Amino acid sequence: MAVPQHAKGDKPNLLGMTLPEMTAFFAEMGEKPFRAKQVFRWIHHFGADNFEAMTDLAKSLREKLPQVATIAPPTLMTEQASKDGTRKWLLDVGTGNGIEVVFIPEDDRGTLCVSSQVGCALDCTFCSTGKQGFNRNLTAAEIVGQLWWANKAMGRDPKGERIVSNVVMMGMGEPLANFDNVTAAMDIMLDDHGYGLSRRRVTLSTSGVVPNLKRLKERCPVALAVSLHAPNDPLRDVLVPINQKYPLAELLATIRDYLEAAPRDFVTFEYVMLDGVNDSAQHAHELIALVGDLPCKFNLIPWNPFPDAPYKRSSNNAIHRFREVLQNAGFVVTVRKTRGDDIDAACGQLAGQVVDKSSRTKTIHISRAAA
Ligand code: SAH
Ligand code: SF4
Description:
binds S-adenosyl-L-homocysteine; elongated; binds iron/sulfur cluster; single chain; alpha/beta
């Protein structure tokens, strides 16, 4: 197997290597597979970022590793805590780019919202990341590095369970447009020697990149959320332009097929509530007809504003009415609570500023991940 170049500088970055990749890397050095497993565990289980800490490795190996490899997580810039328990970290991913990672505590779980790209090319009209345009894909190390940092900060509960129990790929970017790096990062999240998350506890959210959703079914079927946002093609063509390429009938058929392999027997449809655009009772009825007998739940997201956006958030009355129509038809519907308002950690509001070490202010593009 080719050794991937998750490199920072010349040396491969072990943080972004899956266990099979790391095993191949160690084999090339003439080291046994169990050595790779030990290092993998040190990095992801114990949060090590240097080889000296790995006390059960032979001294000679500990000395050799820094010459051929590195463990390079993104640099932590700032950390903030909200009154409601939401936490947010700004990570520097170089060349003036930052990503925000948000932790959302709930009664029975702790969810981390992870980004997959800096910016996004898909240009959904209500999304600040989309308006920002596409900058670059995150590497597998930068994606899994978000979980690595959050685990370092949050630690474990008194029973020894990690506080971060769930991951949602709902931060900045379209995960299925960065397929290889996202699936490698999810492999590490799912690996028992990594973070040991079950496939039910990792959710990928997509706006509907149909060919890669088909590939995901074969490669790494995790729980699925799909950003629907409209009950018909003409409206979805405008709100989620990738619909022009992969229209609703094709998307829904692909989701139905995906569910055969998924760890949950339903898909979650995300539906952003835009005043006067997609939030009438008529739209809700249309939605019911559209999904038919496809096993699904709905998550209604009150739209979060950003400067110069041509939308308004739906009124509470409109959200309530929409919810009721779906519920009366037998669907489970949740309305996403806006969390972490006081630290700007709410869903879909992007771009901010940090001050660099030389005290010059530079604009950093950041993801305010989903709540
Ligand atoms: N690209 C993926 C995942 C990232 S976006 C996707 O589109 O699914 C995560 C969720 O936040 C999506 O459902 C997206 O539609 C929603 N979102 C984007 N901008 C928003 C905003 N301003 N207010 C509320 N939700 C938003
Ligand atoms: Fe990209 Fe998702 Fe935003 Fe659309 S909603 S522009 S796919 S991040």
